[in-house]
Amino acid sequence: MDKKKANQFFQENVVVVFLIALCIFFGVANKNFFSSINIINLTSQMCINALLASGLTYVIILGGIDISVGSQIALAGVAAATIGVKFFPDMGYGTALLVLIGTGLIMGLITGLIIGFFIAYLNVVPMICTLAMLSVLRGVAYIFTGGGPVTGLPTTFACLGAKRLIVTETFPNGMIPTNVIFTVIVVLLMHLLLTKTVYGRHVFAVGSNRTVAHLAGINVKKVILIAHTLCAITACMAGVVTCSKLQNGQPNTGEGYEMFAIASTVLGGTSLAGGKGSVARAMFGVAIIAVINNGMNLLNISAYWQKVVIGVIILLAVALDMAQQQKKKA
To answer: How many Cα neighbours within 13 Å face the side chain of 209?
Structure first.
């Protein structure tokens, strides 16, 4: 491989190289990093951010943003918990799954259509619209619960967020977390929708140039509306998974999660300028954030420093994206 091809390969796969380097560093720094228990915990910890990033990818490809996803997590979680406590106090596993997934879907449709309508049809700037919704949805979650958690859920409610499958002697509580299985299914569906459907091609077309997309006969407003709805659905699914894991509904859940999701998406190569992105590659960004948090926890590094590191990574990722955009224009 000549130098030019090597440089091109490195540029195209810098996120993968960085992820491998991080794993090697933390593996050497702490022998428990590559333990089977930690790997299982690490994959489980990735789930919420993976769900958020899979939906945000669509919005960012369109050149937009959604910073309300953390509040959507909280609202969907308290809604699912409230429904479970009030209507299904003795629910079985099947009913619990129906309540969780059904609530996530319905809440996602409602919030996504509202956000998408304001952005697509009333031309509200995405940042302003989702900033307002961040406050509105969080406020509704607090009003809904009176400021306290929703408790009293049966153990079956943990089926989507805390249960594990394949019990062995080494893992008496199970090896494979159900939230990982659920997340893989959702992320795979989002990836296929973006890469294998007409709608996915329309997303890239609108993100690249809205005027040209409109002249080509694409319903730009509809594409934007659907993208924000998909983003909200994945966020609300993250909310019900979190609720299931905690076995209660917390109105303060999800605060700051939008930062991790945006960082993961941008690290995965999705351009903030629009027109470029991948759900699959966003998962590498998710893995980097999870490895950094997990590794720093194992090394007993303060959570405050973790925030600093994530912030620096976001800044560098955005700077690199802008530099690449300027290079293309030149």
So the answer is: 6
What's the rounded Cα separation, in Å, for the pair 148 and 305?
29
Q: Under a CB-based contact definition with an 8 Å cutoff, are residues 231 and 69 in contact?
A: yes
- Burial class for 276, CB neighbours closer than 10 Å (0-12, 13-18, 19+): middle
Distances (CA, A) of 30 to 147, 165, 217: 40, 28, 56
* Res 328: pLDDT: 65
Q: How far apart are the C-alpha atoms of 96 and 150, rounded to whole Å?
A: 16
Question: Which pTM was predicted?
Answer: 0.94
**129-133 CB contacts, 8 Å cutoff, 24+ apart:** 130/65, 130/66, 130/67, 130/68, 131/67, 131/68, 133/68, 133/71
Report phi then psi at 16, rounded to 5.
Answer: -65, -45
C-alpha atoms less than 13 angstroms from C-alpha of 6 in its C-beta half-sphere: 3
Task: Please list the residues that pair with 164 across neighbouring strands.
Answer: 177
Is 140 within 8 Å of 110 (Cβ atoms)?
no
- Give the residues across from 67 on adjacent strands: none
**Tokens, residue 96:** 């619990």
Q: Tell me the per-residue pLDDT of 260-271, one tens digit each, with 9 for 90 and over.
A: 999 899 888 898
Query: What count of other Cβ atoms lies within 10 Å of the Cβ of residue 12?
Result: 11
Task: Name the 3-class secondary structure at 35.
Answer: coil
